[in-house]
């Protein structure tokens, strides 16, 4: 269980709070809006109504004691930057800050954020990749070039074993597991047979995944 400071309780912040609650982490939430704070109270360890750009307030929280500080402010560019900078100034171990546009992301990183997340851009990329293919169901980026893709089993792969398909040699892809009936099985081998109702988790480059699927249609 981690100790997490969550600043900003708009929609993005609330989703984070719900997930951290499910994961049973210790969360202190902060927002200047009383209604937002009251709504989030059942999902966090504690919540405070305050201005996160107030240096005295932030310092009173004991910032170095938190494992992670999340700045989920997305609608106030200046407050986001000031909060991020103050957190680092007061000894934050790791700061994750939300960006609302490209320039915001650059300034956050320059002002002390260890990591900047840009939800709208990430969702746009996911949607484009998902809708641009008949077989890609989901993906998780590993870098600018590589990702893990959840791919529905192409008809040409049905009934064949992983060893028989040999996608690593033929397509420069690695099959990591199989997903069927909502369950993921990572205990696979060259003898594992792919079925029509399953999906495979493959790691590789987008162009290699696309090329492999085109050849398998």
Compute the gyration radius: what is it? 22 Å
| Mean of pLDDT | 89
Report the uncertain regions. Answer: none
Task: Provide the β-strand percentage band.
Answer: 25-35%
Tally of DSSP β-strands = 11
Shape summary:
elongated
Amino- and carboxy-terminal Cα gap: 46 Å
- The structural class is alpha/beta
Number of helices: 9
Largest beta-sheet characterization: 6 strands, parallel
Q: Please bin the fraction of helical residues.
A: 25-40%
* Helix-strand topology string: EHEHEHEHEHEHEEHHEEEH
- Strands of the widest sheet, in order across it, are 3-2-1-4-5-6
Fold and architecture overview:
By secondary structure, the chain is an alpha/beta fold. It is 37% helix and 26% strand. It is built from nine helices and eleven strands. It has helices at residues 11-22, 34-40, 55-60, 77-89, 102-110, 119-131, 162-165, 167-171, 206-216, and strands at 3-7, 26-31, 46-49, 68-71, 95-98, 115-117, 136-141, 146-152, 174-180, 183-185, 199-205. The strands form two sheets. The protein has a six-stranded parallel beta sheet, sandwiched between helices. It has a five-stranded antiparallel beta sheet with strand order 7-8-11-9-10. The N and C termini lie far apart (46 Å).
